[in-house]
Structures are given as C-alpha cells and as structure tokens.
Design goal:
Elements (H helix, E strand, L loop, with lengths): L10 E2 L16 E4 L7 H8 L3 E6 L3 H6 L11 E4 L7 H11 L4 H9 L4 H11 L1 H12 L8 E5 L6 H12 L4 H9 L1 H5 L2 H12 L6 H8 L3 H15 L2 H7 L4 H12 L1
Parallel strand pairs: 2-5, 3-4, 3-5
Antiparallel strand pairs: 1-2
Helix pairs in contact: 5-12, 6-13, 6-14, 7-8, 7-13
C-alpha cells in the first residue's frame, strides 16, 4: 500500500471486493485526511501518484486553518465542495460558545452533540448534489493522464467516508467490504493524529468526553451501516441517490466503468 509522508488516513480504494466478483480498480479513487501536513517528501510522493483532482469537503473555516499542500511540479485541480455536517471542530466550538465556562455545562453541551450517524444522515439529506458532483469527477477521469480523484475532509473518515461509500456502492462494491474500509479509519487515526486533535480541543477548554472522542477519531461500522440503510430505504440503492443529485445515466455508466471496469 502506498504511503504518503504526513498523511495518516490515505489509501487507494482499489482492491475492494465487487458484488459480482473481482475488485475495484486501483489508481482511480483515493481517500485521505487533509493535506495540510504533507512533508516535502510527502509532496514529492503525492506527485508520483496518478491523482490529478483533489476534492476538499471541508468548510472555508477549516481550509483557512490548514490549507492543502499540493505539488507544484505538475497540475492538480483542487475542487472545493464543502459539507458542514462532519466539521467536528466547528460543532464542538459552537457548543462551547453556547455554554458557560462551567465544566458541568460544557460537559452537558458536549453530550448534546449529534452522533456520527446523525451527521451522516444530515449529509445525505442535504448533500446529494455535492456527492453527485464528486461522482461526476471520478466518471470523467482517464487512464492516460493523471486525473485520478482524491477525496478528503479533515480526518478523512466522515464526509470522506460517506462519499466513498456512496461511490463504491454505486459502482457495485460489496457492502460488507465497503463497511470494512470505512471502519479501518479509526485504526489509521489512532496515535499521533488523534492525540494531536484531542490536545487541540482540550487547549480550548473543551472536555474530552467519550462521545466527542468517537466523533473526532472513531469510525464504528454501525454508523456507516445506518447511512447505507437510509440510502436503501429512501432511494433503493446508492446509484439512485446520486442520480437524485443530478448524476446522469451516462455519468453513472462512466463511473462504474472507471471503478469496476
């Protein structure tokens, strides 16, 4: 597996099992945490990948705090498609502002934060056009030039996880395999990344409750299962959901060709 110095949750979705046999094609769709911590060696390694399009789901405030670092040695298109749901830091900050500095009040405010599953349903209810636009970029990618797509948010697990699950399921990826990929993010983020995030939150006086820890660095399989259940209940399948956001039949066919061959 390719590693990029400075990234903790980077991976190619290639190799994920398809329902009818075979696997998702490598070098087409990548996922990652934010690119602001890329080292010089990481930037060079990134330039060697086939990635030519970076989709950033973060809000303008998040991007301002940690702008992406991209190679200057070749063109990379940056596409900003913000999704408010999943901006955990902003949600926690808003909760702090709405409560007093009293520890009990802050803890109570933290406990009122939505669960990951709630956030995912909010993304799906409001973000069909964003997810369809992402699918369109993957559908338009080519083999003969660096146009593979990388999707990312801050941790690369929530907004990125929902988007990746949608694209993979629409292309025919096995549901259990998609859930396993989603759940692997927690292990990738454990250690330096999660400890750094926890330290930043506590520095601002935010109590580190178990619920907040899950929001920041967790990826329980049950949460993406809930999102997939909602998609199937409301739209029948991921492909129909993406089409509700504007993806055309031709674009869906191209998406499947690129990801599943």
């Amino acid at each position: 597996m390719t590693t990029i110095d400075g990234l903790h949750n980077f991976r190619d979705t290639g190799g994920i099992a398809l329902e009818g046999g075979g696997a998702v094609r490598s070098g087409v769709l990548y996922r990652s945490d934010a690119l602001g911590a890329l080292t010089p060696a990481g930037v060079d390694a990134f330039a060697e990948t086939p990635i030519g399009v970076v989709v950033d789901f973060r809000t303008p405030e998040e991007r301002q705090m940690s702008p992406d670092r991209l190679p200057a040695s070749r063109p990379v298109q940056l596409v900003e498609l913000p999704l408010l749901e999943g901006a955990i830091g902003q949600l926690a900050g808003d909760a702090v502002q709405s409560a007093s500095r009293d520890t009990a009040a802050l803890t109570a405010a933290m406990e009122q934060l939505p669960t990951l599953g709630d956030l995912y349903l909010g993304m799906l209810q409001h973000g069909a056009e964003v997810f369809a636009a992402t699918a369109r970029l993957v559908a338009a990618s080519r083999e003969d030039t660096p146009t593979a797509v990388l999707v990312h948010c801050t941790a690369g697990k929530d907004r990125t996880g929902v988007a990746t699950a949608l694209l993979l399921r629409a292309a025919g990826a096995d549901r259990a395999a998609v859930i396993t990929d989603y759940a692997s993010s927690a292990g990738n983020l454990d250690g330096a990344w999660s400890e750094g995030m926890y330290a930043m939150l506590t520095q601002f006086g935010i109590p580190l409750t178990p619920a907040l820890q899950t929001l920041v660095a967790g990826s329980p399989a049950s949460e993406i299962e809930r999102a997939l259940d909602w998609i199937e209940s409301e739209h029948g399948e991921a492909a129909a959901y993406l089409q509700s956001g504007g993806l055309t039949d031709d674009e869906l066919s191209a998406l499947r060709t690129r990801l599943a061959g």
